[in-house]
Amino acid sequence: MTPIRLVQVSDTHLSATHAYFGVNWDAFRQAMADAPPDLLVHGGDLSFNGPAAEDDLAHGAAALAALGLPWRAIPGNHDIGEAPSFSRLDQPVNAARMDAWRRHVGPQWWRHDAGGWRLVGLDTALMGSDLPEEAEQRGFLAEALAKRDRRPVMVFMHMPPFDQDPEDPAPTTSVIPHRARGSFLDTCVEGGVRVIACGHLHTYRRMEHRGMEIVWAPATAMVDVRRGMARWQTFPRPGYLEWRLEAGQASHRLVEPERMFVIDMSGWTMRNNGTTTTLPPWSGSP
């Protein structure tokens, strides 16, 4: 097969009214213009605060379309909300938020065949949600894997399946809930998944699990330097991943454009007892 060049970008947090991270998106946009990939996959948190501001979703979708590339996207918690029992931001995923994503961006889950690979996109907000859509997505995944016709599979999802220990039962908003994790990983292992590509935690990381490569994409938006150093002994930097898909093989490289700046908002959020979504409006203009 002819190699497929695929770019995975995640956690862009785009908004017209809260344009804190627009400068890094501009750098990404220029990189895509200089070397267009065969396919772009956005790994979630396209928008700054989509659950509360539908205009952010529209703005993010327009920014993707303006790249002039074939693209797919999956929702993140800042696009569609979180599983109701694990809603740190008090933005549980619901029908209205799912409808807004579908209307402005596209389906919550999808499959796409590229060369000899099957690509599958999933919505992690549904995992552990107990919503009817959770069962629908689970059935979709089972069918997409069963009918892959021996293709290796790459799964895109926003939240990582786990951090350090896949058996850790602690409640968390950092990775998919434990009650949904085991069956999901079993389905992937049994169904020919070679790669799980995720984001959400705004740092680059890779690991192996039961024959699968799990790769965390960095953000193009903000980072938390203190958390990265304390939790993963890594200085998080903005960037994206470039994948090369060949017959039965997937490789990637981390790209950190020179014009992407390390933007750490954790000082403001700690002093103001807030989250990034509570930052005041800022258009990016002087």
TrEMBL record:
Q: Which InterPro entries match?
A: Calcineurin-like_PHP, Metallo-depent_PP-like, STPP_CPPED1
Q: Where is the Calcineurin-like phosphoesterase domain?
A: 4-204
Q: Please, which domain of life does this record's source organism belong to?
A: Bacteria
Q: What is the protein's name according to its record?
A: Metallophosphoesterase
